Amino acid sequence: MFSKACIYGIQAAIYLAQQHNQQSDRAFIPVAEIAQMLGIPFQFLKKVIQQLGEKNIVQTQRSAKGGVALARQASEIAIFEVIEAIDGGEMFVSECILKFPGCGNEKPCPMHHQWAVERVRLKTMFEKATLDSLARNVSKGLTRLGFNDKANDQEE
């Protein structure tokens, strides 16, 4: 459903929120640390971070103590914003779930009507889920952050 870049963006944003909750004195996290902890290729993550920066989700700082931080409070950033920044919001508006060209009310694909209902529900879910709430669940051990569990293991 989401591109690899979008998945990495969501993971990185949650990681930033989690780190801020645990160590509020540590403003900027090196991109290399995020990449290592989440098992994301560094160069790929740099591009994803740049996209998030362009949409005011993260801010970056170049210096010895530089890196990346959330641009706003984690409780003010919905996962939907991250998705929209990287993959766009078309899947929640008009994109065909089966990728059929010209799919719409006049020429619907076999899943058109079901997807029309579900995409509204999904958009609402992603708009309500904040980085803060998801980061707290990761910190409590209720969920994991990604494929590489290093990010979760550091708290134990």
Task: Please give a structural write-up.
With 156 residues, this protein is mainly α. The chain contains 7 helices and 2 strands; from the N terminus they run αααββαααα. The chain has a single domain (4-150), classed as Arc Repressor Mutant, subunit A (Orthogonal Bundle), CATH 1.10.10. 51% of the residues lie in helices and 5% in strands. A hairpin with a 5-residue loop joins strand 1 and strand 2 (67-70). It is elongated. The mean pLDDT is 90.
How many structural domains? 1
Per CATH, the class reads Mainly Alpha
Task: Please estimate the helix content.
Answer: 40-55%
The portion of residues forming beta strands comes to 5-15%
How many helical stretches? 7
For the sheet with most strands, the description reads: 2 strands, antiparallel
Q: How many strand units?
A: 2
Output the radius of gyration.
Answer: 17 Å
List the secondary-structure elements in sequence, H or E: HHHEEHHHH
Query: What is the averaged pLDDT score?
Result: 90
Summarize the structure.
The chain has 156 residues and is mainly alpha-helical. 51% of the residues lie in helices and 5% in strands. The protein has seven helices and two strands, in the order H-H-H-E-E-H-H-H-H.
